[in-house]
Amino acid sequence: MATIRDVAKLAKVSTATVSRVINRNGYVNEGTKKRVKDAIEQLNYLPNDVARSLFKGRSKMIALFVPDITNPFFPEMARAVEDVTNRHDYTFVLCNTDNDIAKQIDYLNALQQKSVDGFIIVSSSMTEEHLQHIQVPIVALDRIISPDISSVTVNNRGGSRQAVQYLKSIGCTRIAHIAGPEHVNNAVYRMQGYLDEVNNADWFTEDYIIPGKYNFDAARDAAVKLLNTHSEVDGIFVGNDLMGAGVLNAAVSVGRKVPDDLAVIGFDGIAIGETITPTLTTMAQPIYDIGAKAAEMLIKQINSQEPAVMNEEFTVQLVERQSTL
Amino acid sequence: MATIRDVAKLAKVSTATVSRVINRNGYVNEGTKKRVKDAIEQLNYLPNDVARSLFKGRSKMIALFVPDITNPFFPEMARAVEDVTNRHDYTFVLCNTDNDIAKQIDYLNALQQKSVDGFIIVSSSMTEEHLQHIQVPIVALDRIISPDISSVTVNNRGGSRQAVQYLKSIGCTRIAHIAGPEHVNNAVYRMQGYLDEVNNADWFTEDYIIPGKYNFDAARDAAVKLLNTHSEVDGIFVGNDLMGAGVLNAAVSVGRKVPDDLAVIGFDGIAIGETITPTLTTMAQPIYDIGAKAAEMLIKQINSQEPAVMNEEFTVQLVERQSTL
DNA sequence: TTGTAGGCGTTATCAA
DNA sequence: TTGATAACGCCTACAA
């Protein structure tokens, strides 16, 4: 690989001049500029980013922490983050954390050693404490970490209320909820939204809230149990779409017809919802948009000296499909 | 951030000694070693990886190119690559290429500037030419790039033959094929495997091969058309599972019962196949394993001076589910 | 067993 | 308008 010195020698100038040409700063005569450009071309020279990073203390890299990229909710978000970071000439580093604290700390350290410029973090295990020694900007995505850390989220509680209202509006009279993990704050908000709508109903019982784990299998098992013990249930608001698919599967296996005997609505708006049969009605998040927003927010913070805390809340939207129609 | 000099000063030794302690090489007295370690602890010192990279010309980073991480086939592969690279203390960089040549070249350049240590590439648009100037090891994954570049793949043609044989064995007598894009070599192999089994059948016609694009929508539309024009078709071998889901959807919409009227088998073994109704029979690739193997192969090549070309072919396995039972 | 010093490739400051 | 040079933080001959 050619270095700046090779270019300088070939163009018969100093490295300083080459640097000026590359970075478009400082004065440089048109003639010499051309000589330098020719030399760069001829040698196929590309500046060494590592040396640059060392000098500047910044690497033009951004990291995204997600619990697990094989969970279909995250790829689209990751995609958005990558697209935006690329557009701003950043390199994108993806980290699967499994929500494991030790793993997250390892990543934080390893990436700081590489002078990463900022972090976008989806985590329900990380707290402000773990992050207090981080010197670069951080944006919490999908799940709030602390009031002092910028965040991009959706109206989980309001959206959930809307989901339950919708089930009522299409005639459901006994509505249950398959909930996400209680240590994930958006799962708690979604359950609260459900409770807002049903808590005062005379038919409501705690039995109608079943814990799922935001995954397919647990939700299917939970739904089978629910439907067998509570045959009066005619609507289910499910904490996320992956679990919604599990519920639809359970309905088939216990012989309940969807949507005739049972209406099901999920949350998230992942693509799978459109590929299953019946297709799944859902409160759709603008997944790509929130990922993109987080990336833009982070880059803004990186480029500004005084990084103010910003919080952005997006709105989810009802998407009606076969599971309720 | 503390530097090696701060540590040296605090421990009252030279930076060379600190370096020796950190890297466990060269002799260093037990007493001074302890002093150094204490100083490191006290200052919370972590070596600057950028400086290291500059000196060594290597960054301990590995990049994975995939067409699009939102395609559910890739996350599990990416996950495997990340797990293995982490285990070897490499940092993982994910790149979505959309199979766009310009984008891939941009990534190659950007990452070379960062002294990336190696590439794992899933691409059907890249050729040997594009890669000839790359100085670090490369492993082609899922799709072969050239005989001179190491690869990890599966027995696409053999697996496809097996799929068609299976359909025959359960009684199908008119078997069609929804094919992947013709510029993707594994899609071509899969079609060839299909042809191997049906080409000589008296009932076979070219009409039974319909082009899909490895995605849901195109496959659904293709299947609707096929089933409407060729009602005699009683079995479909689909080029991948995502298209398989589309075919199942199409079957419902044209009123064909699966598996009674129509048997469907896919290829890949992605998780979606188990969540849809009916569940999808498939020729399952060991997706995680091939990703992990590619990563191990690449790391081996990075660590060896004489990088021999290696080719590994995994075997796909029939997974019977409701779409054929 | 330890220290000195040069260099990895850039950038930015200061002179010229 | 250009050049010489000192960093950035680390590692490794070579000396001591």
UniProtKB/TrEMBL annotation, chains A, B:
<dbReference type="GO" id="GO:0003700">
    <property type="term" value="F:DNA-binding transcription factor activity"/>
</dbReference>
<keyword id="KW-0238">DNA-binding</keyword>
<keyword id="KW-0804">Transcription</keyword>
<dbReference type="InterPro" id="IPR000843">
    <property type="entry name" value="HTH_LacI"/>
</dbReference>
<feature type="domain" description="HTH lacI-type">
    <location>
        <begin position="2"/>
        <end position="56"/>
    </location>
</feature>
<dbReference type="InterPro" id="IPR046335">
    <property type="entry name" value="LacI/GalR-like_sensor"/>
</dbReference>
<keyword id="KW-0805">Transcription regulation</keyword>
<dbReference type="InterPro" id="IPR028082">
    <property type="entry name" value="Peripla_BP_I"/>
</dbReference>
<dbReference type="Pfam" id="PF13377">
    <property type="entry name" value="Peripla_BP_3"/>
</dbReference>
<dbReference type="Pfam" id="PF00356">
    <property type="entry name" value="LacI"/>
</dbReference>
<dbReference type="GO" id="GO:0000976">
    <property type="term" value="F:transcription cis-regulatory region binding"/>
</dbReference>
<keyword id="KW-0678">Repressor</keyword>
<protein>
    <submittedName>
        <fullName>Transcriptional regulator, LacI family</fullName>
    </submittedName>
</protein>
<dbReference type="InterPro" id="IPR010982">
    <property type="entry name" value="Lambda_DNA-bd_dom_sf"/>
</dbReference>
